[in-house]
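Ticket #4471: structure export looks truncated?
Reporter: QA, pipeline team
Priority: medium

Steps to reproduce: submit the single chain below to the structure queue and open the exported record.
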Amino acid sequence: MLYWRLLARLFDGEEQAALESASLAVVEDIGLPPALLDPDASVDSVVQRHPELAAELDGLMTPEPEEDGHRDRAAEVRHAALASKVLLNVFAARPGTVTAGQLARWQADAGWLERALGCRPGELRGGRGPRAAGGAGPTGTGVGGPLPDLGRLIPAIGPELGSIEGDLVRRMRLREVLADPHLASRLTPSMSLIEQLLRDKDNLSGVALANAKALIRRYVDEVGAVLRTQVEKATVGEIDRSVPPKRVFRNLDLDRTIWKNLTNWSPEEERLYVDRLYYRHTSRKTTPQRLIVVVDQSGSMVDSMVNCTILASIFAGLPKVDVHLIAYDTQALDLTPWAHDPFETLLRTKLGGGTDGTVAMALAQPKIAEPRNTVVVWISDFYEWRGQELFDSMAAVHRSGAKFIPVGSVTSSGRGSVNPWFRERFKDQGTPVISGHIKKLVHELKTFLT
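Actual output as written to the record:
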């Protein structure tokens, strides 16, 4: 009954009296608040009045093994009532203009859906906060542990949530909201919102522009904190003490050697006799001399543009890494002077337009001074104007000895498409295209760096 009501409300805005009255009877019979059936009540408001429900919502939709085939019917009905509330609030978006308050409410409800799936709020839409076991959620409870396997979700729910959020942002009078400091303060930075801000930044001024920049800065800092942790894990060499240190002079620990052999000091001869040498454990060099990041800034690659400028800035802050950043559409822009600051970099980009990677290659090739010590990361959907010419130059870079990593999309949601012509040729070349979450690129760089 509860699920039939959910489907009816999702596909038809009109109430079905019979389903509503029957569902109300079910909810009251199992001791849950009738507010669960009110589509105008946010999940936050229900939890504030009934805080005991917060713990039930956390991990509500994660799969649990059944014991001996037994199914607790009462618990299943309760589960259906709570799941219906979260799903209805997230997926039954109403038409018309969206206010800042409505967007904030939807984002909070989407956060509860993510928690129900065993994730942290914002994680499926491109998490803005680091995962920490036992970390506090909106009501003081937390979702910790490893990221759950959501592979059985059809379709992938992250891209769908991002799509709904993007539609809400597009239906909001963003310029009016940004011009009002009170309304602007209610906005929560997200990829969909940042995309709109970057597209519209040239039409903003005064208070609206200042608020837009503040939102972009917040998002950059929050995503940067997450990526920085991933990069540090990938690039900091760990010492494996199960392996003896290499016995070469540069690894000799002179202070420890002297200290351990002091018992062999001869006062008469004023000599120290050393019967054992001690060596330092050293981690392998894990960073290349030069990292060249080329990003397609055409309209279809906004998510990748934002993520990769942040990623480039993190690598730019590592010792002994010379980072170069190039953005292109039909023209190429060398953003290397601002690579350390993703906020300034994003403000200098101009999203949209066509795609001609040959102009970016003309800037990138002269930067490959020592191929064996260079990695080139090229992020694009590879729908190119001069495809054969661009691929030939990429193949030349690969043959030169440089590490060439083609990336189809570096998104928070995992959604993206790649030109199949390029995909097949990269595969034949031995440099298959990476597509999906930005963690895949970090993992690939880790493989190269170590």
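Status: closed, not a bug. The export was complete when the record was re-opened. Leaving a note from the reviewer for reference: Residues 2-63+70-124+152-224 form one domain.
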